[in-house]
Automatic annotation (TrEMBL):
Keywords: ATP-binding, Cell membrane, Membrane, Nucleotide-binding, Translocase, Transport
GO cellular component, one term: membrane
Family: Belongs to the ABC transporter superfamily.
Protein name, per record: Teichoic acid transport system ATP-binding protein
GO molecular function, one term: ATP hydrolysis activity
Presence of keyword Metal-binding: no
Boundaries of every ABC transporter domain copy: 5-244
SUPFAM superfamilies reported for this sequence: P-loop containing nucleoside triphosphate hydrolases
C-alpha cells in the first residue's frame, strides 16, 4: 500500500550569527559565508502508513515543531525529500490565525484559502463555531482570545475541513479538560476513518492511549522510531537522566553535532 507520508534524509538548517557584523558581512561579501549553520533537523527519515497515529517526543528544542511544520508544508526543508499525499492540516497554538480578524473572519479566510466555495463555507461555518464552543466570542478579534480559545478555534477549523493528514502540535495541552476530551474523541473518529495523524505532546499518558508509533527526536536526529511502549520505555529512562543534568550539561547535550562553522 502507498505510504501517505515519506520523509527521507530531511535536514533543516538555520543560519545563526554571533554579532551583527557577521550578518552584514554574510549579506555583502560575495563568495564567502559567515555565521554558523544550526541544524534544527538532521537527516531525518521515517514513513507513516495510512491510519497510523505517530507521536513525536523529545526534549525542548529537539525539532518536533520543525518536523510538524515541514510535514504540513508551512516551512520548507533545506535538503531531503518530503512526500505527503493528500491535504495536511496543522493544528498548533497561534499558527495560521490572524490576530486582527475575528474568529468568524478567520474561519472564512482559512476556508477560502483551502478552496471552498461560498456555499460550502456557509455550511461548514456553523459546525466549526458550534464545535469551538466560543459562543459570542466568535465575533471578537482573535487577539482578545486566551491561548485555550485560540487552540479551540484552530482545532475546530482543522478537524471540520476533514483533512487526510492531521498534525496536532501541543494544541490540546492548552485547552481545558472538557475540550481536550472532545478533541480526543474527534481524533478517535479520524483514526477509525483511517486517517494518518501526527501528535506532538509532552503528555506521555496521552501518547500511550492514542499513538501506535512514536518517533523520538534528539538534537534534531531520529533517536528511535517504533512501537509506542517500546520507544516510551526508553525515552522515560532517558528523561530520568536528563532531569539530573545541570543547565550547562543540558545545553551542551542539545547543541552537540548541530553546528557547522562557516567562513
Ligand atoms: N526560525 C528559526 N531560526 C533559528 N533557529 C530556529 C528557528 N526555528 C527553530 N529553531 C531552532 O531549532 C531547534 C528545534 O526547534 P523546535 O521548535 O522544532 O523544537 P521542539 O522540539 O518543537 O521544542 P519544544 O518542545 O520546546 O516545542 C531549536 O533549537 C530552535 O531554537
Amino acid at each position: 500500500m502507498e505510504k501517505p507520508v515519506k520523509i527521507k534524509n530531511v535536514s533543516k538548517k538555520y543560519k545563526l550569527y554571533g554579532r551583527k557584523m557577521e550578518r552584514l558581512k554574510d549579506l555583502l561579501i560575495p563568495g564567502k559565508s559567515y555565521g554558523k549553520d544550526f541544524f534544527a533537523l538532521k537527516n531525518v527519515s521515517f514513513e507513516a502508513d495510512k491510519g497510523d497515529i505517530v507521536g513525536f517526543v523529545g526534549v525542548n528544542g529537539s525539532g518536533k515543531s520543525t518536523l510538524s511544520n515541514i510535514i504540513a508544508g508551512v516551512i520548507p526543508q533545506t535538503t531531503g525529500e518530503v512526500e505527503v499525499k493528500g491535504q495536511a492540516a496543522l493544528i498548533a497554538v497561534n499558527i495560521g490565525l490572524d490576530r486582527k480578524l475575528t474568529g468568524r473572519e478567520n474561519i472564512e479566510l482559512k476556508l477560502l484559502m483551502l478552496g471552498f466555495s461560498k456555499k460550502e463555507i456557509n455550511e461548514l461555518e456553523d459546525d466549526i463555531i458550534e464545535f469551538s464552543e466560543l459562543g459570542q466570542f466568535i465575533d471578537q478579534p482573535v487577539k482578545s482570545y486566551s491561548s485555550g480559545m485560540k487552540s479551540r478555534l484552530g482545532f475546530s477549523i482543522s478537524v471540520n475541513v476533514d483533512p487526510d493528514i492531521l498534525i496536532i502540535d501541543e494544541a490540546l495541552s492548552v485547552g481545558d479538560k472538557a475540550f481536550a476530551e472532545k478533541s480526543l474523541a474527534k481524533m478517535q473518529e479520524f483514526k477509525e476513518a483511517g486517517k494518518t495523524m501526527f501528535f506532538v505532546s509532552h503528555s506521555l499518558g496521552q501518547m500511550k492511549t492514542f499513538c501506535e508509533k512514536v518517533l523520538w527526536l534528539e538534537f534534531g536526529e531520529v533517536r528511535m522510531y517504533g512501537e509506542t511502549n517500546e520507544v516510551l520505555n526508553e525515552y522515560e529512562a532517558f528523561l530520568e537522566n536528563y532531569k539530573n543534568m545541570s543547565k550547562k550539561q543540558r545545553k551542551k547535550f542539545m547543541e552537540q553535532s548541530r553546528f557547522e562553522e562557516n567562513g
